[in-house]
Amino acid sequence: MPGIEKLPIEETLEDSPQTRSLLGVFEEDTAAMSNYCTQLYQAMQRIYDAQNELSAATHLTSRLLKEYDKQRFPLGGDDEVMSSTLQQFAKVIDELSSCHAVLSTQLADAMMFPITQFKERDLKEILTLKEVFQISSNDHDMAINRYSRLSKKRDNDKLRAEVVEDVYTSRKKQHQTMMHYFCSLNTLQYKKKTALLEPLLGYMQAQISFFKLGSENLTQQWEDFLGTIGTSVQNVRREMEDEVGQMQQTIQQMETSCDSLYAPCDPDPTHSPVCRNLTRKQGYLFIRNKTGLVSSSWERQYFFTQGGNLMQQGRGEVAGGLVTDLDNCSVMAVDSDDRRFCLQWISTINNISKRIYLSENAEELAARVNQSAIEAPIRSLNPSLSLSLSLSLSLSLSLSLSLRSSKGRVGRASSISSVGSEPSPALSVLSLDALVAPETPIQFDIISPVSEENSAQSKTAAQSGRRSNPFGESGDGTSEDKSILHQLFIVRFLGSMEVRTAESADVIPETMRQILAARAIHNIFRMTESHLLVTCDCLKLIDPQTQVTRLRFPLSSVVQCSSHQDNKRLFGFVLQSASGRGDDRAVCYIFESNNDGEKICDSVGLAKQIAFHSEMDRKSVEKRKEQDKAKEKQQEELDKQRQIEKDLEEQSRLIAASSRPANPPAADGQFLVLSNSQSEDSDAGDEGKKKGESEA
């Protein structure tokens, strides 16, 4: 290393222009070194920050790979190979994260610390000494100027002494400051070399240590593992390319074969003949929604048949909803200019209405039935894909779905346990008439089922001079307010009808099917929204606007409650109330809720359990009270018996006292005289004696 330039400290007292010129060169070198050191410090700080960010990102990657097993991918499934592979990668990356953390610590100690010390301590010390030297130099110049302007008169001796002292002090301060300043500048010539080399040396040593640590962790085993994973990735990529090629080929074939299906009508009907052997069909149809009293709009939705029911499902919905029952219905083809009324599903609906779908070989049976059928002239939007259907089901529309009735009875026997489910074993031999009476009227508005009871209550209230509540609410504070269960649900009333049995599990699904079919047939779209309050005593339907109770169902009268198997928003319950003539009347109520119907049914079941346990507790308390009353009565009888015995003993004593002889004369010849009170007591004793004998 070449020689290092130095400032001559011996010439600081003389302070010659040559020395000041040389000092300027050193100060210029120091300023350049300070600027360069600042830039180098910023570059090394970026290295250190990047290393910290890399360490944190590596650790985060390892943590995310470890949490892969906890993720729930809808299409992922249980891929054990993928999970184990990612766990091994997480282990390796976690070890690398530890190595990066060690490297960050080494960079902080070996690289950042030396250059920070040089920048913050040594360079700032030079700047401070430079400022102090300039101040002392200015003070010395001012003292010399004052000394040179002194007068030679003797009366200025005191002022002369002060100026001389000032020159002495300022020159001494300048000399000392200048020597320390020169010493720091000379030392800086050595420090600037070490300040540049030590951070670089620490950086290289930290990197070498990091690479050695990485080579120790990434052994030959990991290299083999990485080679295996690379081979698997290449295999997956080849499979993806093969699959993409097959999909492209399928797309080309579909474009060629479906070219004729893009037109709204098939120019050649013989090209795609109608299949009359189907018992299931699906496609997009149009449904009419009323937007006002007269106006209406058509909405395109997806429809499909499920068993003997026609279902609809909107886009974004998970499950479909029931539109109408196709069992024992008839359909006819007409000529219409409005293509929204056109339908190619006639053969399928006819097969479903004949219950062909219940047989084992449905298509073969449908083929035999339709051998002699005459093909109806039908106009269709699209013979294979796009189908349109008028689902308003009114008599004025082109499509007519009417139930066949025989002698006023609906002759239907199909699955009613749930829409689209298999026929119930119990209903395979049991007619639907055993559940729902034929020609039973359906109530679509909310009317209280206990009108007779309300009328009787109003008469009683009129006789007692009190005003009755027309909404069925009691005026006094009942136990409903004290109920420990209060759950509120938003529901819409669909309808209710009287049923023959309240215990069958199929009565609620059958009632749902009939009410929904009747609503579709009669174009009833309005539903009354209410708040269903479930308590331990009753079920209440409350008006959401006025908070007035529309209906009140005693919980003890609710026989069963269940929801629809497919559409969980539908639920219903059977209410059984005893009439005055001794026979029971069962009514099934059907609702639609915003929530899951099963939650409402579970809430009703919980309320019945709480009510049952409360009733058991009440009976237990009443029994305990009766036992306490019996014990009190027994104790009273025992006390009364003891009192009688005590009275008899008292009477016996009085009788014994009254039966004694007259008072004998005294020893000194004097006689004893009874007072009036004693005589009265003796008379009372005689009367008591007689009374005791009579009682005995």
List keywords for this structure.
16 strands, eight-stranded antiparallel β-sheet, single chain, cytoplasmic vesicle, Adaptor protein, phosphotyrosine interacting with PH domain and leucine zipper 1, 696 residues, PTB_APPL, PH-like_dom_sf, four-stranded antiparallel β-sheet, alpha+beta, flat, cell cycle
Outline of the structure:
The chain is α+β, with helices and mostly antiparallel strands.
What does this structure look like?
The chain has 696 residues and is of the alpha+beta class. It is 50% helix and 14% strand. It has helices spanning 17-66, 80-148, 157-217, 220-257, 346-353, 362-369, 451-464, 507-521, 597-658, 676-695, and strands at residues 282-290, 296-306, 309-313, 321-325, 329-330, 402-403, 405-406, 409-410, 442-443, 487-499, 528-534, 538-542, 549-554, 558-563, 570-578, 584-593. The strands form 4 sheets. Strands 9, 10, 11, 12, 13, 14, 15 and 16 form an 8-stranded antiparallel β-sheet that branches.
How many helical stretches? 10
State the order of secondary-structure elements, H for helix, E for strand: HHHHEEEEEHHEEEEHEHEEEEEEHH
- Radius of gyration, rounded? 54 Å
**What is the share of helical residues?**
40-55%
Q: What distance separates the N and C termini?
A: 146 Å
- Global structural class: alpha+beta
Q: Note the overall shape.
A: flat
Oligomeric status of the shown chains? single chain
Largest sheet: 8 strands, antiparallel
